[in-house]
Design brief:
The complex is a heterodimer of chains A (about 170) and B (about 400). Chain A is of the alpha+beta class and about 170 residues long. Chain A has one domain. Helices cover about 45% and strands about 25% of the residues of chain A. Chain B has 2 domains: about 10-85, no CATH class; about 100-120 and about 160-360, no CATH class. Chain B has 13 helices and 7 strands. Mean pLDDT of chain B is about 90; it is low at about 280-290. Classes of the chains: A alpha+beta (about 170), B alpha+beta (about 400). The interface between A and B is large, with 59 and 93 residues.
């Protein structure tokens, strides 16, 4: 059942789901989980900037909108039981430790290393936070949606006048 | 008076830091320092402006920049821009599409009925510009109650996707499907954009350079030049086909699987304006056709509306609309040659950056003792020559 559940949240959403949680919660979890593990970097963890390339929707011509902070990490993990797995993450954050924690989670979840069930629950929590934020935005939209059906009750001549004024 | 060396200012300059910081704190014992979250949320539009003009979507550091600059937007954007110059560029995203935006506001001035509907979101557009005196002595309890009330009301029912979907179609698509818009040049999206952070603007520049420059331009500068076009020094007369504000998921390939993965989201404002149509045959330019020009079945240029596009980080509607108007004006200028300042790429793009223009302006406050000494010498010499001439006569 739990194995089914992890399949429900796609790997492409792991970073954004876990990022929705307080960073302290994630760091304390990964620190505790990996205290007896050997962790090696497959590439040098980095923090810097990413450039956002955007398609303009008028002519579908790409241009650079601006930059964003980015941290990345790619780790190889060996558990105290000798299990080995790789995990990597890139995240919109300037803290390398955030990327390392997420890379560790990526390895744990993808290889189902010890602790993955707990992490899966954290994924669910993160998805709930995301859903709550999404609902909040939808409520803002719903409460300000314009009902143009009321305009139909206005005589066309009056509308023309209003349009001309504008 | 001879040459005046710039010496002895060190202690005075150090003193300015102390005085500047003192003024931030002089409110007294009852004052609380501003925290960055407060700036981000309670001054969100000021925050949006700085994040957009700084050119880096870093909400925490944008707040810090505002705090450090004591609310000076130009100075805050400067600090943010300086920060970015110290950071390495690690990656570039694939070209992202704003169809995937998680909308918080979406309106059209072209049609009342747009697919998905018009949603006003958070705006002051329809408010009376009267002082809200109740905010003068707002208690913390009343302040918290506003959000509490919102959340209580919100949690009553969840809104399904069928009522408010996660994403919305673009208004332009319906016009494009009717053949009223220029066709899209399929190769444009694969062209490498001009990177204004790496290359200087040497004219002529591609449209991608203009869009990138305006995306991080100073709002007031963009507005002023766009306003000149609106008032008569131009002919754009735009209709806002769609103005949307929302959050765009930022996607990067996963380092191991290569699958596109969401790494965060950025708030952006985007505007598409539709402007007067192009006459038949007018979409030709030297060396080819104007980007996006449409041909009919017989290969003739078909008259279509023209388009302007604006987008920037944060919630900055005036900026996005101004940018869209200027994009349309600049396209006309690039095609036919500029007929007014807003159609001149060199005039527009070299004068809208807040950091550049503020830097040039404020440099006049710096010591110019030598150059001014030279000016005085020349004036005295000229006066002397004139005196000599008058005495001779």
């Amino acid at each position: 059942m739990t194995e089914m559940k992890i399949m429900m949240i796609d790997r492409t959403l792991w970073v954004s789901a876990l990022k929705a949680l307080p960073i302290e919660q994630l760091l304390s979890f990964t620190t505790e989980l990996s205290k007896d593990w050997a962790i090696r970097s497959k590439s040098i963890p980095q923090s810097g900037l990413g450039m956002l390339r955007l398609n303009d929707s008028a002519f579908e011509e790409a241009f650079y909108l601006g930059e964003f902070p980015l941290a990345s990490a790619w780790l190889e993990i060996e558990t105290s039981d000798g299990l080995i797995a790789e995990g990597a993450a890139q995240v919109m954050d300037d803290r390398i430790e955030a990327a390392e924690a997420l890379a560790l989670c990526d390895a744990v979840l993808s290889a189902q290393l010890p602790g993955w069930e707990q992490l899966n629950k954290m994924l669910d929590q993160g998805m709930e936070i995301r859903e709550s934020a999404s609902q909040n935005r939808k409520h803002m939209l719903a409460s300000t949606k314009v009902d143009f059906s009321l305009l139909d009750e206005v005589a066309p001549d009056a509308m023309e006048g209003k349009n001309a004024e504008s | 008076m001879g040459y005046v060396a710039i010496k002895g200012g060190g202690e005075a300059i150090e003193g300015t830091k102390t005085v500047f910081d003192y003024l931030r704190t002089r409110q007294g014992d009852t004052a609380k320092p501003l925290d960055t979250d407060t700036i981000e949320h309670q001054l969100r539009l000021l925050h949006s402006r700085v994040i957009s003009e700084g050119g880096v979507y870093h909400p925490r550091l944008a707040s810090l920049a505002i705090k450090q600059a004591q609310g000076d937007t130009l100075e805050a954007a400067f600090v943010l821009r300086a920060y970015r110059s110290t950071q390495p560029r690690l990656v570039e995203t694939p070209a992202l599409n704003t169809e995937n935006m998680r909308i918080t506001r979406r309106i059209s001035a072209a049609f009342k009925d747009i697919p998905g509907g018009q949603m006003l979101g958070a705006t002051t557009d329809y408010h009376l510009r009267l002082m809200r005196m109740d905010l003068l002595d707002e208690s913390p309890e009343r302040f918290c109650a506003v959000a509490k009330e919102w959340f209580t009301k919100k949690t009553e029912t969840d809104i399904p996707d069928s009522v408010i979907p996660d994403t919305f179609p673009k208004v332009l698509e319906s016009l494009r499907n009717e053949g009223l818009l220029p066709s899209v040049d399929g190769t444009a999206r694969n062209r490498d954009p001009f990177d204004i952070t790496r290359e200087p603007l040497i004219f002529p520049v591609p449209r991608s350079a203009a869009l990138a420059t305006m995306a991080r331009a100073e709002q007031g500068s963009l507005l002023a030049i766009a306003y000149s076009n609106m008032r008569g020094y131009g002919d754009v007369h735009p209709t806002v086909a769609e103005l949307r504000v929302g959050y765009l998921p930022v996607m990067l390939p996963h380092p191991i699987t290569g699958e596109l993965t969401e790494i965060g989201e950025v708030e952006i404002t985007e505007c598409e304006v539709v402007a007067m149509y192009e006459e038949q045959g007018s979409s030709s330019v030297a060396g080819g056709r104007m980007p996006g020009a449409t041909e009919d079945e017989e290969g003739n240029d078909k008259p279509t509306f023209t388009l302007g596009y604006g987008a920037c980080f944060g919630h900055n509607e005036v900026k996005a609309i101004s940018m869209a108007i200027l994009d349309r004006a600049l396209q006309a200028g690039m095609k036919n040659g500029p007929r007014n300042p807003s159609e001149d790429p060199e005039f527009v793009l070299l004068h809208v950056d807040g950091i550049d223009s503020m830097g040039f302006c404020t440099h006049y406050k710096m010591p110019h003792y030598v150059t001014f000494q030279s000016d005085m010498d020349r004036l005295r010499t000229t006066q002397q020559k004139q005196n000599n001439k008058e005495q001779t006569i």
